[in-house]
Design a protein that fits this description.
This protein has eleven helices and nine strands. The chain is of the alpha/beta class and 259 residues long. It has one domain: Ribokinase (UDP-N-acetylmuramoyl-L-alanine:D-glutamate ligase, 3-Layer(aba) Sandwich), CATH 3.40.1190.20. It has a nine-stranded mixed β-sheet with strand order 2-1-3-4-5-6-7-8-9, with helices on both faces. The chain starts with a helix and ends with a strand. It binds adenosine-5'-triphosphate and magnesium ion (2 copies). This is Hydroxyethylthiazole kinase. Its EC number is 2.7.1.50. Catalyzes the phosphorylation of the hydroxyl group of 4-methyl-5-beta-hydroxyethylthiazole (THZ).
Length: 259
C-alpha cells in the first residue's frame, strides 16, 4: 500500500494528548507528513476529540492529573468509535504516579499500538524493574521481549533503538533505517509515536502500518542528515524531509527485515 499518498489524500485528524516538550514538534511533524493534528489535554474535551479523531495518541510525558484523566477519557471514547489508539508510556516504572496511570490505560483502553524505547518496553514486559527517565535503560532491543508485550496486550509493539522492532506477537520486523542524530534532539521518539497515528488510521493491518511508519521516519532522518550540520539544522531538515517524503523514497531506501 502507498501509505504516504493515502495519508496526503485522507488528511487524517490526529488527536494528541502529549507533553509540553514534544507538542510543537509533533504538531509540525504531523502536518509535514500530511495529517491534521490537534493537541489538547483538558479532560473536558478529551471525550469529544477522542470520538471524532481518526487516531488518538496518548503520550505520558510531563504528566499531570488532568492529562491522565484526559487520556483515559479520550482512549475510552476512541475505543467506542473504533478509532485506533497509540500509547507512548514514557518512563514507565519511573514514578508511582505515571506507572499507575499507564496501568489504568493498559487495563481499560484497547490499543492499536504501543511505541516506546526498548527500555520502556522491557519494563512493560516485566523484564526490567524501572525506567529512570525518558532515555532507554538498555542497549539491546530484544524482539522476544517486544513480542511478549504485543501478546500480553494484544497490540502492535514498536520498540525503538539502534534497530527498531515492530511486532504484533505473530509477525516481527526489524528496521535499520534512522540516524543516531535522533538521539541528540528532544522528542524524536514522541514525534515517531504521533507519526504512527496517520499510518494506523489509513490501514486495517496495524502491523504493516507500523512497519511503514517506522521505515518512513527513519528514512526522513537519514535524508535530513545529508543536509544538516548538527542538531539544530537536523530538526528543521527532518521536518523538510517528512514534508518531501514519497512512497517511492520509502520503497527505495527501506531497510526492513521481516521474520
Ligand atoms: P524520546 O527522547 O523522544 O522519549 P525515545 O527514547 O522514546 O525518545 P528512541 O528509542 O530514542 O525513543 O527512538 C527515537 C528515534 O531514534 C527512533 O526513530 C529510533 O529508531 C531512533 N534511535 C534510537 N536509538 C538509536 C541509535 N542508537 N541509533 C540510531 N537511531 C536511534
Ligand atoms: Mg531515546
Ligand atoms: Mg520516549
Amino acid at each position: 500500500m502507498n501509505f504516504i499518498a493515502k495519508i496526503r489524500e485522507d488528511k487524517p485528524f490526529i488527536f494528541n494528548i502529549t507533553n509540553e516538550v514534544a507538542s510543537n514538534f509533533a504538531a509540525n511533524g504531523l502536518i509535514a507528513i500530511g495529517a491534521s493534528p490537534a493537541m489538547s489535554h483538558t479532560p473536558r474535551e478529551a471525550q469529544d476529540y477522542g470520538a471524532m479523531a481518526d487516531a488518538v495518541v496518548l503520550n505520558l510525558g510531563t504528566l499531570t492529573e488532568d492529562r491522565g484523566e484526559a487520556m483515559l477519557k479520550a482512549g475510552k471514547a476512541a475505543n467506542e468509535k473504533g478509532v485506533p489508539v497509540i500509547l507512548d508510556p514514557i518512563a514507565v516504572g519511573g514514578t508511582v504516579f505515571r506507572t499507575e496511570i499507564i496501568n489504568d490505560i493498559l487495563a481499560t483502553v484497547k490499543l492499536a499500538a504501543i511505541r516506546a524505547n526498548a527500555g520502556e518496553i522491557a519494563v512493560l514486559a516485566g523484564a526490567l524493574e524501572k525506567a529512570k527517565g525518558p532515555d532507554s535503560m538498555i542497549e539491546k532491543n530484544d524482539p522476544e521481549i517486544a513480542k511478549a508485550v504485543a501478546k500480553k496486550y494484544d497490540t502492535v509493539v514498536i520498540s525503538t533503538g539502534e534497530t527498531d522492532v515492530i511486532t504484533d506477537g505473530m509477525r516481527t520486523a526489524l528496521c535499520k533505517n534512522g540516524h543516531e542524530m535522533l538521539q541528540n534532539i528532544t522528542a524524536s521518539g514522541c514525534l515517531l509515536s504521533s507519526i504512527i497515528g496517520p499510518f494506523v488510521s489509513v490501514a486495517d493491518d496495524k502491523f504493516q502500518a507500523g512497519v511503514y511508519a517506522v521505515a518512513s521516519y527513519g528514512i526522513a532522518a537519514e535524508l535530513a542528515m545529508k543536509k544538516a550540520m548538527g542538531p539544530g539544522t537536523f530538526i528543521l531538515a527532518l521536518l523538510d524531509e517528512l514534508y518531501f517524503l514519497t512512497d517511492e523514497k520509502v520503497k527505495r531506501y527501506k531497510q526492513i527485515q521481516e521474520r
